[in-house]
Specification:
The chain is mainly alpha-helical and 127 residues long. The chain has four helices and no strands. Helix 1 (8-30) packs antiparallel against helix 2 and helix 3 crosses helix 4 (71-126). It starts with 7 loop residues before the first helix and ends with a helix.
Length: 127
């Protein structure tokens, strides 16, 4: 594992892409396109990418620590694990939102019934 794992021009390109990535996340956050609590996962991924750009020898070391012999297989494994974690988080968010929508729908139906009953009782008193 040599210190020159990534060529300088690739490191510069990745650093520029990382800066653009982080700026986009901050723009989305500023425009309230995504909430802060969901942004933290993306910021953590950006920090991890930044660490790997500055210290590229960490990735092969970590991959071999996991017992994977080929660097590309290890990189795919890490990417798949990140995507699985992201999918689990998004599924959790969708489930919470579905519960909230169901609760709101039930509350609205109850309120509509109560309003209808009040109108009927007022109509009986006046009629």
């Amino acid at each position: 594992m040599g210190a020159n794992i990534l060529p300088v021009n690739l490191r510069i390109t990745l650093a520029i892409a990382l800066v653009v990535y982080l700026v986009l996340i901050l723009v989305f956050l500023k425009n309230k396109a995504i909430e802060l609590k969901y942004t933290l996962l993306w910021l953590a991924a950006g920090v991890a990418m930044g660490i790997l750009i500055v210290f590229p020898e960490i990735l092969p070391w970590f991959i071999h620590l996991l017992g994977v012999t080929d660097n590309m297989n290890g990189l795919f494994l890490i990417c798949i694990a990140f995507l699985m974690m992201l999918l689990m988080e998004l599924t959790s968010i969708v489930s919470r939102q579905a519960r909230k929508i169901r609760r709101l729908t039930q509350n609205q139906a109850i309120m509509e019934r109560e309003i209808r009953e009040l109108k009927e009782s007022i109509g009986e008193k006046n009629g």
